[in-house]
Design goal:
There is one protein chain. The chain has three domains: 123 residues, Rossmann fold (3-Layer(aba) Sandwich), CATH 3.40.50.720; 122 residues, NAD(P)-binding Rossmann-like Domain (Rossmann fold, 3-Layer(aba) Sandwich), CATH 3.40.50.720; 93 residues, Alpha-Beta Plaits (2-Layer Sandwich). It contains 15 helices and 22 strands. The strands form four sheets. Strands 3-2-1-4-5-6 form a six-stranded parallel beta sheet, sandwiched between helices. The protein has a six-stranded parallel beta sheet with strand order 14-13-12-15-16-17, with helices on both faces. A five-stranded antiparallel beta sheet has the order 7-8-11-9-10. The longest helix is centred in the N-terminal third of the chain and has 15 residues.
Length: 458
């Protein structure tokens, strides 16, 4: 497949890297010559300097032969115009655009992106999706990551093992005997910054980050096995009133009516705007790094402090200060993934990388076959996805223990006739089953063959 990517920022770069690694013909466009040169030197793709919305630049990228345009520049308008030009002049079949401003997506303007007007097939709104992802983490105590699948019938949960985790130093095969009615499968472990898919004889250790798939209705019973209680925060402080902070407060107001919310914003005009657009959230004007404003927000009584300004350093500092002053869990929005190496060690409980959320959303629309959902794990080290098994799939009719023999992949859950089936070694996948599977990035080609459709990139 030939793909043109408009925008060579972190999102564009990572999408280009994933697509190129899968053997696709990728061209990336950006105005910044130094960035384009760097990407061209590190990834086997064509890199072009220019305005992605200009017809001459898209023509230079051979847009007439392209199967897809993914527009992820920093400007909504450039992304939209690039899609329009790609459609009108070059007849590009599929157009995906990142659009941050929600004004474009209001219901009263819903006809804007129709084919006869501004033809964009998929619109990605990173701030909204990041806000939703943070809300899910707040809902599950201790969660490092939460991803719903199959209409939220099952969830992928990531937690950190502590000395209070009852099942540490216990072979995973014994979980079935310890919790016979608990629908839970451990699908991944991060130990000493390395991800691996555990076997039945592996044990969890203190400080391990464990990924497990659990039937959502069993989550309340699953958390105590890892030393956590199912108790949603009652008081949350949000630092940052940008789009993510505003959307997060809206989500929390709607989903948790009894939640006490306070939001801190440094810009007075923005603080006034946010206050006018929220119903129950108390909005404070000030610098969230200052002791006085954190005391005014009563951060010492908050179960969670969430720092989502547009500055990584401010987010990390605010999260740490809030926790030092007595706040509970500290969550920080961090765009620079290098910070992940130190944030946990200095006291930040959870880092949220908006790039991962955006890349996962886009890849879900780039892939083909019976794929319904996809989520990248640890910057692409592995992926978890939901896919439908076809009658022609080599996976159908064979016990899952045969799958484990190949290594690098594991089935976390099966949805059959709208019911959740937790897989065991003797479980046999049937046609039309929806399979929740985790696979390391180096075995995705093998996954394609198992499903008899291309689950990888076009």
């Amino acid at each position: 497949m030939k793909v043109i990517i408009a925008g060579a920022g972190l999102v564009g770069y990572n999408i280009a890297r994933y697509l190129a690694a899968a053997g696709n013909d990728v061209t990336i466009i950006d105005r910044r010559a130094d960035l384009v040169r760097k990407i061209g030197d590190t990834v086997d793709i064509q890199a072009i300097v220019g305005h992605a919305s200009h017809p001459s630049v898209l023509d230079q990228a051979n847009a007439a032969d392209a199967d897809m345009l993914i527009a992820v520049t920093q400007a909504d308008e450039v992304n939209m115009v690039a899609c329009q030009v790609a459609h009108s002049l070059f007849n590009v079949p599929t157009k995906i655009a990142r659009v941050r401003a929600q004004d474009y997506r209001q219901g009263r303007w819903q006809s804007l992106f129709q084919r006869d007007h501004m033809p964009i097939d998929v619109i990605i709104s990173p701030e909204v999706e990041v806000a939703q992802a943070i809300a899910l983490r707040l809902e599950v105590p201790g969660a490092l990551d939460v991803v719903p699948f199959a209409e939220d019938k099952v969830r992928l949960i990531a937690l950190r093992c502590t000395p209070e985790t009852p099942i540490v130093n216990t072979p995973l095969r014994q979980l079935t005997y310890l919790f016979p009615d608990l629908h839970l499968i451990c699908v991944g472990v991060v130990r000493e910054d390395k991800f691996f898919i555990p076997g039945a004889d592996d044990q969890l250790l203190v400080q391990d980050e464990v990924y497990f798939v659990v039937e959502t209705s069993h989550l309340e019973r699953a958390l105590p096995a890892f030393g956590y209680e199912q108790r949603m925060s009652e008081r949350v402080v949000i630092a940052g009133g940008g789009n993510i902070g505003l959307f997060l407060a809206r989500v929390l107001e709607k989903r948790f009516p009894g939640l006490a919310l306070k939001l801190i914003e440094a810009d007075p005009d923005r603080a006034a705007f946010v206050a006018d657009n929220l119903k129950r959230t108390i909005v404070l004007h000030g610098d969230a790094r200052e002791r006085e404003i954190l005391d005014e927000a009563n951060v010492r009584t908050a179960q969670s402090i969430v720092a989502v300004t547009n500055n990584d350093e401010i987010n990390v500092m605010t999260a740490l200060l809030g926790k030092r002053l007595g706040g509970g869990r500290a969550l920080a929005l961090v765009n620079n993934s290098t910070y992940d190496l130190v944030t946990r060690r200095i006291g930040v409980d959870v880092t949220i990388n908006p790039r991962d959320t955006t890349v996962s959303s886009i890849l879900q629309h780039v892939r083909r076959g019976r794929l319904k959902s996809v989520h990248t794990i640890r910057d692409g080290e592995a992926e978890i996805y939901e896919a439908e098994a076809l009658e022609t799939s080599p996976l159908v009719g064979k016990p899952l223990r045969d799958l484990r023999a190949h290594g690098g992949m594991i089935v976390g859950a099966i949805i059959r006739d709208e019911k959740v089936v937790m897989p065991r070694g003797g479980t046999i996948i049937e046609p039309r089953d929806r399979v929740i599977m985790v696979a390391r990035s180096d075995v995705l080609r093998r996954v394609e063959q198992l499903f008899a459709v291309r689950l990888d990139y076009f």
